[in-house]
Automatic annotation (TrEMBL):
UniProt-recorded name of the protein: NAD(P)-dependent dehydrogenase (Short-subunit alcohol dehydrogenase family)
Cross-referenced Pfam families: adh_short_C2 (PF13561)
PANTHER family found in the cross-reference section: DEHYDROGENASES, SHORT CHAIN, OXIDOREDUCTASE UCPA
Keywords carried by this UniProt record: Oxidoreductase
Entries under Gene3D superfamilies matching the protein: NAD(P)-binding Rossmann-like Domain
Family: Belongs to the short-chain dehydrogenases/reductases (SDR) family.
PROSITE patterns: ADH_SHORT
Highest taxon of source: Bacteria
CDD domains registered for this protein in UniProt: SDR_c
Length: 254
């Protein structure tokens, strides 16, 4: 599989942009979540990393708190711990997700369908339900959610993934409208191909097919996702909410 030869130029870090702010990151062990966590920390944020396994306190680079995003009680426990330790939460990046079964609709196992929706969609629902009341009461908050270009157009043989991400987009738009009067923004990012472990879960044929749709001719780099996520989570993104920002190398979604 060829992912393209062009290399992305890293965007400059803005020191102190998140000074004094606390940001929660889910899926922090993954390529996109990890890159975004590093970027946020480099710009002054106190980052609380979480993932499905957990490897420590969640505060140090590479360490994370355990959070099963499908369980509301675990969201509540993590949030309570953050508020007890730091007294605030200013932002959250939901970077968790699974691909789900790669099969035609008629062959889709319902267990795989259900698990994909539980992680990709229910995991975001529980997170929003837990965090939004705190942020709305504070009069400030930034939430960015990992969607997918598949949410816009669907990918053949990826019905569970495509449908769950489309539902995430609708959830984000709804939550954004509800929270907008209280100074809280909720947006989603729709990547196409990125150099993460997810590519390893796809067949070589699928990777070749997807790359052929990207006009830039290469997969995205996690640092490019981190740049956009950091902006959406920053005070600068004060008048952007309920949006789906494509991060696709120009992939045509019409």
């Amino acid at each position: 599989m060829t992912l393209g030869n062009e290399t992305a130029q890293p965007s400059p870090v803005w020191p102190c942009r998140f000074q004094g702010q606390v940001v929660l990151v889910t899926g922090a062990a993954g390529g996109l979540g990890s890159a975004a966590s590093d970027r946020l920390r480099a710009e002054g944020a106190t980052v609380v990393n979480t993932d499905a396994l957990g490897t420590g306190s969640g505060e140090a680079p590479g360490a994370s708190l355990r959070l099963d995003v499908t369980q509301r009680q675990e969201w509540d426990a993590v949030l309570a711990g953050v508020l007890t330790q730091y007294g605030r939460i200013d932002g959250a990046l939901f970077a968790h997700g699974v691909q789900g079964p790669e099969t035609a609709v008629q062959d889709m196992p319902f267990a795989g369908w259900s698990r994909t929706f539980a992680i990709n969609l229910d995991g975001c629902f529980h997170g929003l339900a837990a965090l939004l009341p705190v942020m709305r009461a504070a009069g400030y908050g930034r939430i960015a959610v990992l969607a997918s270009i598949a949410a816009r157009e669907g990918n053949a043989n990826m019905a569970a993934y495509s449908a769950s991400k489309a539902a995430v987009v609708a959830l984000v738009k709804t939550a954004a409208k509800e929270a907008a009067p209280d100074g809280v923004t909720v947006n989603s990012v729709a990547p196409s191909m990125f150099r993460t472990r997810l590519l390893e879960d796809l067949s070589p044929e699928r990777n070749t097919e997807l790359l052929a749709r990207v006009p830039m001719g290469r997969a995205g780099e996690p640092a490019e996702f981190a740049s956009l996520a950091a902006w959406l989570l920053s005070p600068e993104a004060s008048y952007t909410t309920g949006q789906v920002l494509d991060l696709s190398g120009g992939r045509n979604t019409a």
